[in-house]
C-alpha cells in the first residue's frame, strides 16, 4: 500500500463512480479498478460495494477512508513543513475572508503585515463563515478571517477588537436626530435588511425590547445588504466596518445602542494541525493590531 493508492481510493470514494474518479485523476478506468482490487487484496477486506450506478463504502471502507484522509493530510503537512523550512519566510499564504472583514483586514492587518514581510504573497478565498470553515477543514486555506458568532469548537482563535452593529439608513427613511446612535425601538416597524447569520441574534434582542423586527430581506453577504439599503429598499443592519465596503452615497448610519449587537473579527485555524511559519507570523501580527 502506498500514498498513490490512498489518493486513488479517496477519489473513488468521493466521486462514487470509477469512471468519474478516473476522469478526475486523468487516467483510464481499468488501471484504477485494478489498483482498488490490489488494495482490497492486500488488506483482505472489501472496501467498496459495486452497484450498477454508484459505489457504496462498506463499514471497513468508511473507516479506511477516514484514516487515509488523515495520512494524506499528514503527508501534505510534512512536505509543506520541509519546504517552508528550506525557503524561510517566503511563499504564498492562503487565507479565507468573509466579505464584511474586507476593509478592516486590508487596512489594519495585511498592510502592516506586508511592511514587515514584503516577500510573502497572498491567495485570498472569499465566502461566508460556513464556506470558510469547510475550506479550513479541507486544508485549502490555512487561516480563516470570520466574524462572531461562530462555532469555535475545532479551531484555535485570535480575536480583534469588538465593534458595534450599525443601522445604515437610506436618506428617504432617515429621521432627524442629533444623536450619533440609534435605539432598537427606533427600528420598530421599519423594513430591515439583514445578514442571515445575524438573524437569530437580531430577533432575540428586538424581542427583549418588546417587538418583533420587520425583516424585509435576508442575504448572505454584507455588501449585498448595503447595496439593497443604498437602493432605498430598507434599513441595513451590518457591522460598522462593513459600511466602508459598498457604495453608500444614499446612506447615513447610526450605531445601534445594544451591548448584545456587537461583533468582532477573528483569525481561526484548525486545532492540532501543522501551521506554516508564514501563517504563524500572520496570526501573531493579527493579534498585535
TrEMBL record:
Pfam short name (any one): LysR_substrate
Top-rank taxon: Bacteria
Keyword list (alphabetical) reads:
DNA-binding, Transcription, Transcription regulation
Question: Sorted alphabetically, which CDD domains does this protein's record hold?
Answer: PBP2_LTTR_substrate
List residues of the HTH lysR-type domain: 1-58
> What is this protein called in UniProt?
LysR family transcriptional regulator
Amino acid at each position: 500500500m502506498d500514498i498513490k493508492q490512498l489518493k486513488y481510493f479517496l477519489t473513488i470514494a468521493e466521486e462514487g463512480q470509477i469512471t468519474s474518479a478516473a476522469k478526475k485523476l486523468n487516467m483510464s478506468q481499468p488501471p484504477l479498478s485494478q489498483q482498488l482490487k490490489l488494495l482490497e487484496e492486500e488488506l483482505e477486506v472489501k472496501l467498496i460495494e459495486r452497484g450498477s450506478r454508484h459505489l457504496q463504502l462498506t463499514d471497513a471502507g468508511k473507516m479506511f477512508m477516514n484514516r487515509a484522509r488523515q495520512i494524506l493530510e499528514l503527508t501534505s503537512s510534512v512536505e509543506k513543513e520541509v519546504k517552508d523550512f528550506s525557503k524561510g519566510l517566503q511563499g504564498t499564504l492562503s487565507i479565507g475572508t468573509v466579505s464584511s472583514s474586507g476593509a478592516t483586514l486590508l487596512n489594519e492587518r495585511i498592510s502592516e503585515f506586508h511592511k514587515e514581510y514584503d516577500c510573502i504573497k497572498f491567495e485570498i478565498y472569499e465566502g461566508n463563515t460556513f464556506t470558510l470553515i469547510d475550506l479550513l477543514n479541507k486544508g485549502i486555506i490555512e487561516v480563516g478571517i470570520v466574524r462572531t458568532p461562530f462555532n469555535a469548537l475545532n479551531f484555535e482563535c485570535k480575536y480583534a477588537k469588538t465593534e458595534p452593529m450599525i443601522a445604515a439608513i437610506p436618506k428617504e427613511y432617515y429621521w432627524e436626530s442629533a444623536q450619533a446612535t440609534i435605539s432598537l425601538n427606533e427600528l420598530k416597524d421599519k423594513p430591515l435588511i439583514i445578514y442571515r447569520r445575524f438573524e437569530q441574534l437580531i430577533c432575540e434582542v428586538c424581542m427583549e425590547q418588546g417587538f418583533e423586527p420587520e425583516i424585509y430581506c435576508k442575504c448572505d453577504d454584507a455588501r449585498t445588504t448595503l447595496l439593497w439599503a443604498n437602493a432605498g429598499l430598507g434599513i441595513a443592519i451590518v457591522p460598522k466596518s462593513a459600511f466602508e465596503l459598498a457604495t453608500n452615497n444614499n446612506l447615513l448610519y447610526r450605531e445601534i445602542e445594544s451591548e448584545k449587537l456587537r461583533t468582532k473579527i477573528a483569525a481561526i485555524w484548525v486545532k492540532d494541525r501543522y501551521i506554516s511559519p508564514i501563517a504563524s507570523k500572520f496570526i501573531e501580527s493579527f493579534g498585535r493590531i
